Amino acid sequence: MADLLKEIQEGFANLDQSGRMLPLRAIPAVCPAWVFREGDRFGVAVEYSEPQEISEGFAGANLRTVERVVAGQHRRFLRLESSIEWLRNEFGLICEHMVTDARKALLADPLVWWQRWRHLLGNALVDKHGYDVLAELLALEALVVKGNTFEWSGPLGGVVDIKTPDTDYEVKSTVSRYGTVINISGQFQLAASSGKPLQLIHFRFEPVEDGLSIDLVCDRLVALGVDAVMLEGALQRLGMEAGCSARKEAYNLLEARSYAVDDNFPRITPASFVNGALPVGVVQFEYKIDLSGLSSQEL
Q1: Is the full-model pTM beyond 0.70?
Q2: Same domain? 82 vs 185
Q3: Which domain does 141 fall in, by range?
């Protein structure tokens, strides 16, 4: 397969960014594959006839379905792609494996192949769980139903997850049936720095086969008048493009409670330190809060 690997790597190096797809000559004609470069992305593609939408990302690589015109014909492809130029030769090894040894397993069940590939390489990244995003969407839905306008600032890296004209909201979630401990990052997450009241909303879920999902709640939000383009853009910033399996994960909502983050709520803020500054040499910290026994209301 040395000729195939060389052909893939040369395609990465020499194709322009127009999206042109070149058939790989070292692959038998009965199971064709293509090498491509499109914008800042490069990779390999095989034809995929199933209607399933796929968009998965991990460690600088993506597996996604696309539709393109090749040789005058409209076709549907499954593409493995990356944009990390300095690792493109190493990425070529994975692409070679995809279009040869792994091809049958890949086309039989792309998501199973993807998960096994991730597990094999090891995931050094921290994924945002589907239920974390689902919780924020359910909080948005509750606010919209009550007639509130909002800014979903979590995907933008905001200090709080949701802002309204009157109140800020931090959203936490768990799939632990009985756990009441939440993680807080740093001294600003519960600092209510905007001058508005701050509420912490805690969701408790359980995974199920058929239940609430990101896609389902997004559809409900759009039906309530929320901008679909805004929602899709926010999900993309979170690495959850349309077709991402995390958007289809299903959960039952067991509990949703709201806590007023006030003087009676346990927290660490800049005011907890002398002159409002961290001790010299301390640049970041995390801590845990036990919500059991704290005053709360059902959302």
Answers
A1: no
A2: no
A3: 130-298
